[in-house]
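dumping this here before i forget
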Amino acid sequence: MQIEHVCGAALALALTTCGPVKTDEPAGVGETTSMSEPLPVVIPRSEQLEIYSDVLGRAYEVQVKLPPSYGDAESADRVYPVLYLNDAPYNFQVAAGITHLPMNAETIEEFIIVGIGYETGADGMDSRTRDYTPSINPEFERVTGEAAAYLGFIADEVIPELEQRYRVDVNRRVLGGHSFGGLFGGYVLFHRPELFSGYILSSPSFWFHNGVAFEYEEAFAETHDDLEANVYMGIGALEHPAASGGTRNEMVQQMLDMEAALAARGYESLTLKAGIVPGANHETAFPAVLMSGILWHFATDRDVAYAY
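structure:
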């Protein structure tokens, strides 16, 4: 078993904005500027599907971005790993943006990005809360507890559809998610770990329903002596302050507790890493955690000391 733990900056992103060229010539009185009509911005090599789920009885939008070489004639027989993300309206755009340069520069492997959205026509928060939470919590403000059925949708409908449409490496699926999406990733890890070879759990909501995720971890350990998975967990250092008198933020401690629980099992086939993003809270941690997790899973040069 390989286990690593880091606390440090996970990512540095530099964005350069170029504005219009300024001159000393004054604008002429009454001059007008010729401007074309604005057009939609399109993510290159991306498309959107709608998949109707017989399992759930509802439809979901699924977004797909193909890697740079996918359409090349010399790559016609090549298969690609797949990164599956939930919360597609946010996570897909983040993943498509932060992987564009490192994938073109061959810093990371080429892989297909899949974003699974919410129930078509439904409120996004209602859809994700229902689908990503593993247990029914009657005290919660929204419907919860349909993660098992949603997992069936992904395993039996989304993945087969994508693997029929695209050239994918069926042995290299990575599941990523943030908040309730990270909680759902933990649920999959302890119920159908073989479905994905790797996991990126960002700011996982292990607090949900009195820490039911820890019960799933214990139940898995009682019936398994190994866990074959590559798990990256990350969280912002400023997430959800603990109650007065606490010395560490609540969600941070819960993630570290899950890391410690998994490490204590001694699973031979588990590789595990956890990172903390300084200065990040629940709303800002995801891009850094996702990039660190992507580097951990897909970096082309494993000898480079990235700040995972």
